[in-house]
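G., before I forget:
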Amino acid sequence: MFRAVKDHLATRYEASLDPALLDRIEVLKAHLGGYETDAFGFDPEAIKPVIPIVEFLYRRYFRVQTFGLENLPEGRVLLIANHSGQIPMDGMMIGTSLLLDAHPPRAVRSMVERWVPSLPYVSVFFSRLGQVLGTPENCRTLLAQHHTVLVFPEGVTGINKTFDKRYQLQQFGLGFMRLALETNTPIVPVGVVGAEEQIPALWNLKKVAKLLGMPAVPVSPHMLIPILGMLPLPSRYRLWFGHPMHFTGDADDDDAVIGAKVSQVRDAVDALLQRGLAEREHIFW
Amino acid sequence: MRVAITGISGRFGALLTRRLHRQHTVVGIDRRPFPGAPADVELHRIDIRRKRCEEVFRKGAFDAVVHLNVMHDPRASSADHHTFNIQGTTRVMQYCQRHGIKKLILLSSANVYGPRADNTQFLTEDAPLMGGERFHQIQDLIGIDMLGQSFFWKHPEVETVILRPVHIVGAVRNAPSNYLRLDRPWTLAGFDPMVQLIHEDDVAMGIERALRPGAQGIFNLAGCEPAPLSRIIELAGGRPLPIPHFAAGPMLERLWKMRLTTFPAPELDHLRYVCMVDAARAREVLGYTPRYDLDATLTHLRLTRALLAS
C-alpha cells in the first residue's frame, strides 16, 4: 500500500519534470554500462529529486552565465578550477552547467575532501550525485572510464580564504598534472567568477573549527541577518571554460618539472578570472 | 593432484571438497567430524597444532595444501584465537616447507584492509592492512595474512597464494551472511556505502584457479557487481532499521556484552565506510571471473534464510 502510493507519487513527479531534462539524465545513465549505480555509487536517478532546487539555484538564484562550454573536448577531461565561496557551490554550479547547458550533457565527477565520507547524509548525497573521494587512484579509475573529472587543486585553502584574498589563486597541488600526464588527459581550465562574494568571510575561526573537527568556520557579516543569513548571497556566477591544454612528459618527473606545467594551468585559470572580472559589470547582476 | 584441506569440516570446507573431489584426491584434516563427507575423501581427525599431525603431511605426499583451519568465532577469547590461528598456520607452513609441498593456499579476507573513511574506492593488493586499527579482535587474521607474505618470500620453492575475498555470502554462517539474513538489519542513518559481495561458490572457484601450477602471490577476489548497502538489503529481503551512528556503537557494544547479538561493535564500520577491492590481478593472472551476479547471489542467500528458519 505504502509502496503503491510512493510509486504513484514518483511517476507523477517525474511527469512534472521537463522531458528534455529527463533525456539528459538518460544520456548520463547510458554512460554507466547498464548498472543502476556505478561502482562509486553514482546514480543518475538521484538527480531527479534534487533537480528543481539545483535548477532554481542555477537559473534564478545565482543566474549562472557560462562562457566557452563548447571548448570541452570529447572523452575524458580534467576540469581544473579555482575554489572559493566557503561552501562548494562552485562545484555544484559547474556540475549543473555541464548537465543542463553542455551538448551532450555530462556528469561531472568531482574529487571531494577526505572528511566527506564520514558525514552522515552528506556522504550518501554526494556519492549518489557522482562525487568521489579525492584519491589519485579514484581519479585514475574515473579517467580510464572516460569521465569528466573536476579538481580544485587549491583544496580547502582556496575555498576557505577570507574576503581580503578574493580572486587570489592559492598554491596548486601537483597531483592532477601527474595524472593528466599518466593518462594522457586534456586539461580544461575553469575560472569561476562570483562565488567569492556569496559568503564574504571576514574571519575564519580556526580554533572553533579544530574543536568541531571541521576544515574552517567562516564568519560573514551577512550571517547576522536572521534566517536569510544562513543562505549565501545571490551574487551572479560566471563560469569561464578555457581551451583544452595538452601536456606530455614523464608523470614521475621531479616536482620542479611538474610544477612548471602546473603553473601554466594556474596562469590559464588566472587569465580566465581576470577576464571575467574585467568584463563583469556588477557583482549581483 | 593430492590436495590436503585443513578445516575441511566447516561449511566452506565441505563446499570446497564437493567441488574438488572429482578431479583431485582430497585429504581432510580437522578435529571436528565431517558428516556427509564424500566416500573418496580421506579424513584425519586431528588438531593441526599436534605433533602427530606432521605425520599426515610426511606420509601424505600432497601436491597442495588449502589452509582453511582458521577460527573466526568472535566470542572466542583472544588467547584461543591467537594460539589456534597463528600457531596453527605457522605449523602448516613448517610442514609444507619440510615435506616438499609445492603449493600453499591461504584464505585471508578483504577485511584486512578495513573499512575506513579515506579508503580509495578500489583497494589493490598493495594497500596497507589497516583492518585492526579499530577492530582489534581481527589482529590474528591480519597476522595470518602477514605470515603468508613472509613465507612467500622466505620459501620461494613453495608457491604461496593468499586470497583476499570480499564479504562471502551463501549458506555459510559468517557475519555478512548472518547480517543479510536478518529481517530488520541495522543500518547507520545517513550512510549507505557501496558494498561488494562474493558468492561462496565463486570463492571455491578462486581456490580451484589458484591450485593451478604457477599461480602464486596475493589476490583480491571480488564477486558480483558492487551495489549500495540499501539495495543489497532490499534484494536480500530485509527491511533496514536505521540507527544514528553515534548511538549504534554504544548500543551494539552493550548488546554484545549482554550476549544478545553475534555482531561485535567494530563491524558497524562496514555499514559506514567502503572497503572494496580491485580484483584485476585475479582476473588477469588467475583468469578468475565470478559466475554469480548480484541477483543470483542474493537469491541464494534468501533461500538459505528460508531453510535456516524452517
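Residues 2-279 of chain A form a domain with the Glycerol-3-phosphate (1)-acyltransferase fold (CATH 3.40.1130). Residues 119 and 227 of chain A are 24 Å apart (CA to CA).

More on Monday.
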